[in-house]
Amino acid sequence: MSNNFDPSLALVETPIDAYREEGGTTIARAVERLGTYLGWAREGKSAFGNLIPSGARVLIKPNFVLDHNQSNGGMDPMITHQSVVKAVVNAALQTDAAEVLVGDAPIQTCDFSALLETTGLGTWAETVADPRFQGVKDFRRTVAQYVNGVRVAEENKLPEDEFVLFDLESESLLEPITDETDDFRVTCYDPRLMAKTHGKGRHRYLVARAVMEADVVINLPKLKTHKKAGITCALKNLIGINGNKEYLPHHRIGGADLGGDCYPGHSRVKRMLEYAADQQNLTDSGTKGRIWSGVATQLNRVLHLMGDDLGIEGSWSGNDTIWRTGLDLNRIMIYGQSDGSMSDTPRRRVVHLADAIVAGQGDGPLSPQPLPLGLMFAGNNAACMDWFGALLLGYDPRLLPIVREAFESFRWPICAARPEDITLSGDWGARKIGKIDRVMGRELPPVAHPIGWRDAAAVALAK
Predict the structure, then answer these.
(1) Does a cis peptide bond (omega within 30 degrees of 0) precede residue 365?
(2) pLDDT score at 463
């Protein structure tokens, strides 16, 4: 399991039109080449022949955040492309794995059936003849939709015994910012439920049992900019192993001047908006919900007229919460056991393969615009993946907390290397990544960052 900490990465250039290719041969070859560069491949047993032991249970974790792009950017920059998912599943089935499952927990308003139909993955999964393939699974216990501004939820979609409850207690990375005020929030959710899962000395997560029972996890992120975390790649993608939203603190209520991290400074309008949002999320009454929704709409209009584009959801570089939640789940992925305890040594092999053929830029993760990079890259360690991914997105990785802090020392560490130890092999040659202001001497397209993260952009990526 020590290979989880190997700082080696590999990269292959992949044409953008490979997404549309019948049969997916180009992407399958790209996966094979990545596996060869990283030592995962074995002749006759595909890209993962040395990675997946005989009899192993394999979980493939894509990014299926939402069934549609909330902007006009299309699906290519939105989710892990279906051609990549298919190629990785097919390669996993060429090994002696006992079973292969694809699974994710997208946001609650995602129409999972529509996502499977739009991508074609539903029909494709039914045609896979290998009985070891367990299909494409939705890990959510709660789904929701909005009717006239009121959240209507369907709870307990999956039984609790399909999940494992973890409590990292005082070892959680959230503990240093936790007090008795119950100020953790996640957008559009009852704060009373989150108060039950996260408080002083109590930090609970509810993880799909299929994840905890896997011997090998192949993490398939889509490289995108992210309004709350700055970047979503290997580290942030593991939010989707958790089944219920009330276990996932995304920000703390209030502006920075009042001890929160929803937005910089302070704002009376935003404090009123936060109160209206809480009241809307607290009520079970459709009438009251519509009233508070109307109040929130008017306050949002006021903010817009004031020229504010940040809102109240922690969509800025001062968000000191979401990275902690994300890294806690990475620690559980590596060290978590199926009884809810944490081992002192890694319990499963976790590798990462990022889809950056068309990456996402702008207001990701839900409204990204396409960023054609024509790349796929892979590695053994999520922190190293994200450091390189941040460079590709035009960031200074040191200014992205979820990336920077993943290299730090804490119990159940995520990374044992330093950024300067990261090596890259493949189509750009074999060498260390090098200086922070360039990526292997390559010219990269300019990137549109979320407004709240423009201060994390690198001064010059390619000169």
Answers:
(1) yes
(2) 38
Closest C-alpha among 400, 397, 445 to residue 420: 397
Residues in the chain with pLDDT < 50?
A: 1, 460-463
Dig out the tokens for 387 from the structure.
């450091």
Beta bridge partners of 224: 232, 360
Q: Judge if pTM exceeds 0.85.
A: yes
Residue 459: predicted pLDDT: 64
